[in-house]
């Protein structure tokens, strides 16, 4: 039972949304992708009638509409006895509506605002499943018809030839075999559908992790294995390889996904405050503490605590961290009362912790407590086959952010991206693509300034290095001036530069950038 590309492109699709721009956008996207039978409607009241006439293979259904919302439409479709399968993909911008829609019978969802790559992938995946289901239903009807005919023949045979017992037994055996084949076919199709959904989800996009290389596939497999367990995970890898993204993927696939994921960046917390940040404090615990503070461990109770760059944690704090990992209990600063919490630990580091243990900078017992299930994230230079996918993802992202319409990449840019060794890994690539989108003219991505030296592949002198530093310094200062020296928030410079506010402040200190008075 095989679904061809022609089957998918000729499938019947209905788009239902009360917002005309959304309808036109989705319709044009599908037509441009080669789909031939696309119907649209802005009236949810006519969906059932349209479906009885056309028997759509997939229905893209908005949840928030006047007259009749998406949940009511799905209920009406389910009440239609001619439908035993609901091929609905809901369109929603509300995270809490996604689970409700799936419980109401929807097969998948598409998030608003639309990510065009996600839209095409989910529709293609949904159509494969829907068309397979239709073929199975057709085969079932054929088999049931065969069974009915055989049963009628056997009945007539029994009435007319009651003495031919042997023949009747053979017919009954054949009937049982037919039922077994039907069940096997259904079981096989169900298994294939589950496998297909997993493969499509994993092939190019595992949550926020982009890639399909063998090394990254191994990371995906490790995440799927350990996520449902409650084991402590240690993420190893260079800066910028995506350790934080993998931590979020593990949490979102665990039994704790409805509880918070609390992140602690050990590099940004001052040594004098890290204990109160982790464990909390009572009012008056030390000079300047004029209010009670709930620590990160309490905030993460029932959920997951992500200790990013654990190798930076002061040695004196490591013993206290070891105690809470072992016993699940601690005391707030200034309080004798012991607090018990149930927290899953995910730690990450770009350091070689074994060397840190040998050098006396990291506790050996804490290392063994953290190293229950290590996952090593490969650097980008070892999985360069993922670079085109990452570039496409980031171009789409920054097109939306900056308002560009870049849809192609020059050959020179492609070669520069593949030749560079990416010491900053995916984070460096993301920053480079954002810069390229800003600087590129027209609809073709061009790598300017930053990658000139990479393309030439010759040793760089001090003057060229200084030029790049000056360029970054000037760019940061320019963005700060445009935002009125606002660092954080929706209109802050950190968001426009694609940096964490703490990272931006560190670079301002590094380059001596200070606010200029008018």
From TrEMBL:
- What range(s) does the Response regulatory domain occupy? 12-127
Keyword field:
ATP-binding, DNA-binding, Nucleotide-binding, Phosphoprotein, Transcription, Transcription regulation
Q: Which SMART domains match?
A: AAA (SM00382), REC (SM00448)
Q: Quote the SUPFAM superfamilies the UniProt record gives.
A: CheY-like (SSF52172), Homeodomain-like (SSF46689), P-loop containing nucleoside triphosphate hydrolases (SSF52540)
Q: Which residues carry this modification: 4-aspartylphosphate?
A: 62
Q: Domain of life, per the record?
A: Bacteria
**Sigma-54 factor interaction domain boundaries:** 209-438
Return the InterPro entries for the record.
Answer: AAA+_ATPase, AAA_lid_NorR, CheY-like_superfamily, Homeodomain-like_sf, HTH_Fis, P-loop_NTPase, Sig_transdc_resp-reg_receiver, Sigma_54_int
Q: Enumerate the transmembrane spans.
A: none
Q: Protein name, please?
A: Sigma-54 dependent transcriptional regulator
């Amino acid at each position: 039972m095989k679904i061809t590309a022609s089957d998918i492109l000729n499938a019947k699709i209905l788009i239902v949304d009360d917002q005309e721009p959304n309808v036109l956008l989705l319709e044009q996207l599908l037509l441009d992708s080669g789909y031939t039978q696309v119907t649209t409607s802005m009236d949810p009241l006519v969906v059932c009638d349209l479906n009885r006439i056309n028997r759509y293979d997939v229905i893209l259904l908005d949840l928030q509409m006047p007259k009749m919302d998406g949940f009511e439409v799905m209920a009406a479709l389910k009440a239609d006895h001619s439908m035993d399968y609901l091929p609905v993909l809901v369109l929603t911008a509300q995270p809490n509506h996604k689970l409700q829609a799936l419980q109401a019978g929807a097969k998948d969802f598409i998030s608003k605002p639309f990510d065009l790559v996600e839209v095409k992938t989910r529709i293609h995946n949904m159509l494969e499943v829907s068309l397979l289901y239709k073929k199975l239903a057709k085969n079932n009807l054929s088999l049931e018809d065969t069974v009915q005919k055989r049963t009628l023949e056997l009945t007539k045979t029994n009435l007319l030839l009651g003495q031919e017992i042997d023949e009747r037994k053979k017919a009954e055996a054949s009937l049982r075999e037919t039922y077994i084949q039907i069940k096997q076919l259904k079981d096989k199709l169900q298994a294939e559908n589950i496998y297909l959904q997993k493969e499509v989800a994993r092939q190019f996009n595992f949550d926020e992790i982009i890639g399909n290389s063998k090394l990254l596939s191994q990371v995906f497999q490790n995440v799927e294995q350990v996520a449902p367990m409650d084991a402590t995970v240690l993420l190893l890898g260079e800066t910028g390889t995506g350790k934080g993204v993998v931590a979020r993927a593990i949490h979102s696939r665990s039994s704790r996904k409805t509880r918070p994921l609390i992140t602690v960046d050990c590099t940004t917390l001052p040594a004098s405050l890290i204990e109160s940040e982790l464990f909390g404090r009572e009012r008056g615990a030390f000079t300047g503490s004029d209010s009670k503070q709930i620590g990160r461990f309490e905030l993460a109770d029932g959920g997951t605590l992500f200790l990013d760059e654990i190798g930076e944690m002061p040695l004196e704090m490591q013993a206290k961290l070891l105690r809470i990992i072992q016993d699940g209990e601690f005391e707030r600063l200034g309080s004798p009362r012991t607090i018990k919490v149930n927290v899953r630990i995910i730690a990450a580091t770009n350091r070689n912790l074994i060397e840190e243990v040998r050098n006396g900078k990291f506790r050996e017992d804490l290392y063994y407590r953290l190293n229950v299930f290590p996952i090593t994230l490969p650097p980008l230079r070892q999985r360069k086959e993922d670079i085109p996918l990452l570039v496409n993802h980031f171009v789409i992202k920054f097109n939306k952010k900056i308002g560009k319409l870049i849809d192609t990449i020059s050959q020179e840019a492609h070669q520069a991206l593949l030749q560079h060794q990416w010491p900053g890994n995916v984070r460096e690539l993301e920053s480079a693509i954002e810069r390229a989108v800003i600087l590129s003219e027209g609809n073709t991505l061009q790598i300017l300034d930053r990658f000139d030296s990479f393309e030439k592949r010759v040793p760089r002198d001090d003057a060229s290095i200084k030029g790049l530093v000056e360029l970054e310094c000037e760019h940061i200062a320019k963005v700060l001036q445009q935002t009125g020296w606002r660092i954080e928030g929706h209109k802050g410079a950190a968001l426009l530069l694609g940096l964490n506010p703490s990272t931006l402040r560190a670079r301002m200190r590094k380059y001596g950038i200070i606010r200029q008075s008018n």
